[in-house]
């Protein structure tokens, strides 16, 4: 078994003007998805990220503070799961709730070093 | 797997939180309050993906209050007069803030604010749906079949009026109350009608508008100053209408008239509730339009089938309604009732009093009814002429299909 990260990229909820009803609805979907992975025993971890960004770049270590409104796409969170291969994770990612909001799931394998 | 949250918890709680917090922080801070409440739900919707708290409502309240305190602390450095407000906040415990009676009182104040005569009548519904019912701009636009931009403008205008006129967040008393409550009932009924008669194909958003109107009316019935006979009558009317909501459309999403509705699908508990409310409504002798409208719907519901409808009684109630509130729509309905009752001369008497332009976008109903009238008295040419006029005026697709079917029937049978 290998470990993979599903990285969620898209607009931040704050900027989408969702109604309380929609938020509750989405939360329910995320909750079910998490429960499903939990029940399958494949969930290894995951976090949601707040939309504040401090970016440090370049030789000069230039610091910029950004909000989600200033960048089109933002990493909103991630899950780490255990799976056989990319195809298996792709299957899991089918239940990601925010495709209709323009969200993207990026699947990356976590690198393992042989000793 | 299901979450343990009750349906619409966020939406209903959003209206409650905004109302209660406005009670303490004042209408002048409404925007800050609405933003804070929105933030709270955003936070909850992300945190609760993993695990949900034991008492979700208490959690939401606590977070919203803290969020507002944060904002006020930030604002305090800019505006000194906020210090006083903050002192007030410190004295309020969360428990006090969210006692059931406090919530109801605050929501009632918000309803009266939304329906304040200083607000433009078009803005009242929009403001009520946003602030009391917790709809988003997009949801309001979709429910009212309007552009999001229009809704935004209306909300802005309502908020500005509230600020400029320094509107008090209170329930009016004495003489003022009786005038103001009429407007409140009217706004509630308009919201209901948007749902019940809406052209929207999606039945869900329509049902939600109806449900929201009923919920608002329920709040009126819980307060001793607002539980007046017309509030009961409106509640009864909405129950009777709602009882038929599911049977109005068949499985192919086609509109069905009363004649073709499956009466077994009508909701009996809602009819019963409507009856109970109607009994309360007639305890006083003063009847409102809601009394007559409810009496009319009740008469339809009483009939075991379409053929056995008591059209004489229905016509009687319509006459009374028309006396109280003269309208081209009532005249049209009376004409239709007379056709059902095979009293064609009388039907024509009502038709003659109607100017189709008074019916605005619903003028097609007049032409449709006249087509029916001519069909009944075997004047095929006129019947077809009027059904074409109706088809020309109708915009709603469901209604259009309905009229087309009628035209086919005329062509076959006349």
End-to-end separation of chain B in angstroms reads 57 Å
Overall form of chain B: elongated
Structural class of chain B: mainly alpha
In the predicted model, the low-confidence regions of chain B spanning at least 5 consecutive residues are none
In angstroms, what is the radius of gyration of chain A? 16 Å
What oligomerization state is this entry in?
heterodimer
How many β-strand runs of chain B?
0
β-strand amount of chain B: under 5%
**Termini gap of chain A:** 17 Å
Q: Residue-averaged pLDDT of chain B, rounded?
A: 86
Largest sheet of chain A: 4 strands, antiparallel
Order of helices and strands of chain A: EHEEEEHE
Proportion of residues in β-strands of chain A = 35-45%
Low-confidence stretches of chain A: none
Radius of gyration of chain B: 24 Å
Q: What share of the residues of chain B lie within helices?
A: 55-70%
Describe the structure.
The complex is a heterodimer of chains A (115) and B (414). Chain A is 23% helix and 36% strand. With 115 residues, chain A is an alpha+beta fold. Chain A has a four-stranded antiparallel sheet with strand order 2-5-1-6. Chain B has 414 residues and is mainly alpha-helical. Chain B has a domain at 1-98. In chain B, 70% of the residues lie in helices and 0% in strands. The mean pLDDT of chain B is 86. The interface between A and B is medium-sized, with 23 and 28 residues.
List its traits.
heterodimer, A: 115 residues, 4-stranded antiparallel sheet, two-stranded antiparallel ribbon, 2 helices, 23% helix, B: mainly alpha, 0% strand, elongated
What's the structural blueprint in terms of helices and strands?
The complex is a heterodimer of chains A (115) and B (414).
Chain A: E1 2-10, H1 20-39, E2 43-48, E3 53-57, E4 62-66, E5 74-83, H2 86-92, E6 104-109
Antiparallel strand pairs in A: 1-5, 1-6, 2-5, 3-4
Chain B: H1 9-25, H2 30-47, H3 56-76, H4 82-91, H5 94-97, H6 100-114, H7 121-132, H8 137-144, H9 148-164, H10 174-196, H11 203-222, H12 229-243, H13 268-281, H14 289-302, H15 311-324, H16 328-340, H17 344-351, H18 363-376, H19 380-393, H20 397-413
